[in-house]
Each structure stands twice: as structure tokens, then as C-alpha cells.
């Protein structure tokens, strides 16, 4: 899964997910990669960095903290709300390429 940049022509991040089974239980493993300060070179698609999309200073520690807080809030909200509310709250304006 990939998230395209605001100009919709270059990839800014990717999300990997895999389900693993261990001792009879299934676990979802999620990995994300965000091109913050450097981008990858790939013949299949063009990429861009967050620093190329903004004039703001990009700090990886701030991005990590924001992701952590948002994910914790999402997990708390999962127990309280229906999926339609969660989609509106967390996916508003997001366009995904799968």
C-alpha cells in the first residue's frame, strides 16, 4: 500500500502488513516507511520526501510521537465507536494506492 504525495505523481510513504500465526494466535504486523529527508530510487515509481513537500522543518522524532499518539487514540476509539465514524475521523481526505 502506498500514499501518494499532494502532487499525486510521487510516492511519499509505504505501509506493509502481514499476518503471522504463533502458538495458535494470529498477529498483525504493520510496518511503515516515510520518506522524510531522503527518498528511495525505484524504476517502477517516482518518490518524493516530506521535506520537498513543505517549507516546515521535518523532525523524525516529532513524526514518530504524532504517529504514536494518533495510533493510541485510534485504539481507544475502536472500543467506543462504529467503523463508519472511525473511517470519517481517521481517513478524511486520504487517498490510497493499493
Protein model, in words:
This protein has about 100 residues and is α+β, with helices and mostly antiparallel strands. It has one domain: BirA Bifunctional Protein, domain 2 (2-Layer Sandwich), CATH 3.30.930.10. Helices cover about 30% and strands about 30% of the residues. The chain contains three helices and four strands. The protein has helices at about 50-55, 60-80, 85-90; strands at about 1-5, 10-20, 25-35, 95. It has a four-stranded antiparallel beta sheet, with no helix packed on it. A hairpin with a 6-residue loop joins β1 and β2 (about 10-20). The longest helix is centred in the C-terminal third of the chain and has 19 residues, at about 60-80. The chain is globular, with a radius of gyration of 16 Å.
Report strand %: 25-35%
The biggest beta sheet, please?
4 strands, antiparallel
Second CATH tier, the architecture: 2-Layer Sandwich
> Which descriptor suits the 3D outline?
globular
Strand order of the largest sheet: 3-2-1-4
- Give the number of DSSP strands: 4
The gyration radius over C-alpha positions equals 16 Å
**Spatial separation of the terminal alpha carbons:** 5 Å
Could you give the order of the helices and strands? EEEHHHE
Q: Level of helix content?
A: 25-40%
User: For the record, what is the CATH homologous superfamily label?
Assistant: Bira Bifunctional Protein, Domain 2
CATH topology: BirA Bifunctional Protein, domain 2
Mean pLDDT rating: 81
Briefly note the structural class of the backbone.
alpha+beta
Tally of helical runs: 3
Amino acid at each position: 500500500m502506498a500514499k501518494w504525495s499532494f502532487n499525486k505523481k510521487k510516492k511519499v510513504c509505504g505501509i506493509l502488513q502481514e499476518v503471522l500465526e504463533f502458538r495458535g494466535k494470529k498477529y498483525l504486523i504493520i510496518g511503515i516507511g516515510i520518506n522524510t529527508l531522503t527518498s528511495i530510487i525505484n524504476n517502477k515509481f517516482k518518490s518524493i520526501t516530506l521535506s520537498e513537500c513543505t517549507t516546515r522543518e521535518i523532525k523524525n522524532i516529532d513524526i514518530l510521537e504524532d504517529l504514536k499518539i494518533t495510533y493510541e487514540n485510534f485504539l481507544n476509539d475502536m472500543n467506543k465507536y462504529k467503523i463508519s465514524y472511525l473511517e470519517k475521523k481517521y481517513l478524511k481526505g486520504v487517498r490510497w494506492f493499493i
